[in-house]
Structure formats: structure tokens, C-alpha cells
Amino acid sequence: MEELLNSTAADLTQLKYALDTFYFLICGALVMWMAAGFAMLEAGLVRAKNTTEILTKNIALYAIACTMYLLCGYYIMYSSDAGGILPNLGVLIGEENSVDAVLAGGDDAPYYSSRSDFFFQVVFVATAMSIVSGAVAERMKLWAFLAFAVVMTGFIYPVEGYWTWGGGFLSEAGFSDFAGSGIVHMAGAAAALAGVLVLGARKGKYGKNGEVFAIPGANLPLATLGTFILWMGWFGFNGGSQLKVSNIEDANAVAEVFLNTNAAAAGGVIAALLVARLLFKKADLTMALNGALAGLVAITADPLSPSALASTLVGAAGGALVVVSIIGLDKLKIDDPVGAISVHGVVGIWGLLAVPLNNADATYSAQLLGIVSIFGWVFAASLVVWFTLKAIMGIRVSEEEEYSGVDLAECGMEAYPEFTSVK
Question: Are residues 160 and 375 in contact, defined by beta-carbon separation less than 8 angstroms?
Fold first, then answer.
């Protein structure tokens, strides 16, 4: 009888391990599909003459993120000392969990494959880098961008990831960020802001007397498709961050996370539409799209603790805030073609500050420490890299290349050869 019970327990352990590993991998695949969402969103919001280059950036940055995180990023993030600031440096991702380790049981026994953990984490790194792509669109050199991607995904992101999810000093201080409003989204926006400040605005975006001239994107259906893809992928982004689904408590938590993620996105769309209507007297589609993403970013810091109604309100606040932020950054002459800094940075900060409203274990002091530490590190480190690249190879295309379109200058081909205009 005892042998039968032990065999049954081992079988159950293996089944739970397989289920949690499979769930982790499926959520990672959903997040990977967000790369397509970013590509379509950005391709829709830039001008036709810059479409091929932005698509090239998106597929290349994903490949670079996967490679750099494999070579050194994952080790930096998850192989460093608990409670520390300076990470350990090393390479590759270690060994897979053994059968004996899994069947040993106890709190220290692994409950999903270490390879599934790497896959889930690497697609988050690519997401952070994708945020930079849209903000610097239409005037940055392709190879300078890709060089920055190497440093961002291999070192800058893993360091602040170690401080938080890797058990570093922010984790010890009680900083709470369930799925990455700050760790992923605000970090990507901080790197983007540094790049935009060094790069400067697109030609014709701002007038001498403070005028702001709209530069419409070429394909709003594509941008809308990209937003829906991102919305879908976000269920993996937030749902997978529960880490397991093989018991009643975790299964219920995953369902709550899915519900709240969807509610926040809906709240963001509605609020952005209403604010745009009040300010512009029109239903602005681009603001609605950014409102959906803002709602998703806002709830990502804690999609589990709030009720569905509270999540809708958190998302709605993000949707309203992103409209105001996009207008405000334009007044400051910070040119962000897709609104990435506002969506992921400004609203990312709001999402982190909203956590204590619904989670009694979170404190504003810890959240503020996390915001300042992550933003400060990523912004300062990115600024150094951008200035270094500017000195070594230059980061901005020539005025003539910008006018003709970076598709031809950087890629030698056009996305819409029959219809491209240089106006």
C-alpha cells in the first residue's frame, strides 16, 4: 500500500510539473506573439516610406534579445546574490531540472522546467526593447539601434531585472510589480526617452513658434490589428506571471488575472475615447488604441488583487492619462511617433503607484524606491550608450535620407512600392 501511495504521489507530482511547464510555455508563446503586435502597431503608425525599416527593426531586435539573454542576460538576472545591487556576471542558462529534484518535493523543489522559465523571461526582454523601436522611428540609423539592442537586452535590462524578480535589493525592500509595469514597460520607456532626447525630433514635427504638426501614420487598419494582437498577448504576459496553474488556488488566480487584464484594457479604451472627444471634438482612433495599451500597462503591476470593477478604473485612469501625456510631451517637443513613452513610461509609473490601492502588502515607499531605481538606472545607462553610439557611428540618418524615407536608405526596398510618397 505504501509503495502504491508513493507511486501515486510521484505520478501526481510529475503531472503537475508537466501542466505548469506547458502553461508557462503557452503563455510565453502568447507573449512572443506580442512581437507581431508591436511590429504591426508601429508599421501602421509610421509613414509608408519608413515601414520596411521599422519591420526590420522589430524582427531583428527579437532575435538579438533572444540571443543576448541566452548568452548572458538570464545568468545576470537570476544567478546573482539575494538582496544585492551589483549582479554576478556569467554566461548561459544552466542545467535543466533533474527528475530526482522534482520528485524530492518540498518548498525548494522545482515545479516547472527551467527552460520554460527562460523562454517566458526572454520574451519579456524583447517586449522592453520593442518599446524603444517605435519611439525612435523614422529618423534613427538601423545599425545604431541594433547595437543599442545588444546592450539593452544583454545587460541594462537584466541588471534591473535582478534587483526585482531576481531577488535583488528592490525585492528585499518590498517593491511589488506582478508582471512588469515598471520592470518591463517603464524600463523600455526610460531607454526610449534617452534615445529620443539624444536623437531629436523628426523634421517638420515642430514649428519655430511652438506649433505641433501632426504626422499621420500610413496604415491605421494595421495599427488596429497590432493593438488587438497585443491585447491578446497580454493574457499570456499577465496570466503567465502567476507561474503555475495546477491547483485550485492558482487556477482561480489565473482566471482573475485574465478577467482583470481584459477589464483594464476596456476601461482604457473608453476613457481615452471620452477624453479625446472632450479635447478634440472627435473620436480619435490612435488615442483609443493607445488607451487600450495604457489600460493594459496600468494593470500589469497588479492584475490579481483588484476586483474587476477596480481594474476597469485603474485602466480607465491610464487611458485618460495617456492622452494628456502624449499632448504634454508634444508641447515639450519630445517626438515619439507611436506614443510609446507615454503608454509604457508615464502609465507604467501610474500602474506601480496604483498597487497599494488594492494590495495591502504594498507600500508607497517601496513603490517609489522601485520607480526611481529602475527609471534612473535604465535612463542613465541608456544615455551613456546612446551618446557613445552617436560618437562612434552616428545615430541619425541624414536630412536627405529622412526626407526620402529610411526604407530606401537603410533597407534598399519599400513596403508599398506602388504607393510610397516622400511628402
Answer: no
Q: What are phi and psi of 396, to 5 degrees?
A: -115, 140
Taking phi first (over 0 means left), then psi (-120 to 50 degrees means alpha), and beta for anything else, what does residue 227 get? alpha
**Closest by alpha carbon to 347, among 378, 320, 377?**
320
Report, as ranges of residue numbers, the positions in the chain whose pLDDT lies below 70: 1-7, 419-423
Bridge partners of residue 396, in order along the sequence: 140
Q: What is the per-residue pLDDT for 421?
A: 53
The C-alpha cell that represents 24 in the structure block: 508557462
Distance CA 374, CA 405 (A): 35
Q: 332: closest CA among 189, 196, 186?
A: 196
Range 8-411 has CATH code 1.10.260.40 = no
Burial of 154 (0-12, 13-18, 19+ CB in 10 A): buried
* The pLDDT value given to residue 11: 83
pLDDT of residue 1: 65
User: Can you give the residue ranges of every domain in the chain?
Assistant: 8-411
Three-class secondary structure assignment of the chain: CHHHHHHHHHHHHHHHHHHHHHHHHHHHHHHHHHHHHHHHHHHHHCCHHHHHHHHHHHHHHHHHHHHHHHHHHHHHHHCCCCCCCCCCCCCCCCCCCCHHHHHCCCCCCCCCCHHHHHHHHHHHHHHHHHHHHHHCCCCECHHHHHHHHHHHHHHHHHHHHHHHCCCCHHHHCCCCCCCCHHHHHHHHHHHHHHHHHHHCCCCCCECCCCCECCCCCCCHHHHHHHHHHHHHHHHHHHHHHHCCCCCHHHHHHHHHHHHHHHHHHHHHHHHHHHHHHHHHCCCCHHHHHHHHHHHHHHHHCCCCCCCHHHHHHHHHHHHHHHHHHHHHHHHCCCCCCCCHHHHHHHHHHHHHHHHHHHCCCCCHHHHHHHHHHHHHHHHHHHHHHHHHHHHHCCCECCHHHHHHCHHHHHHCCCCCCCCCCCC
pTM equals: 0.95
pLDDT tens, residue by residue, 309-363 = 999 999 999 999 999 999 999 999 999 999 999 999 999 999 999 999 999 999 9
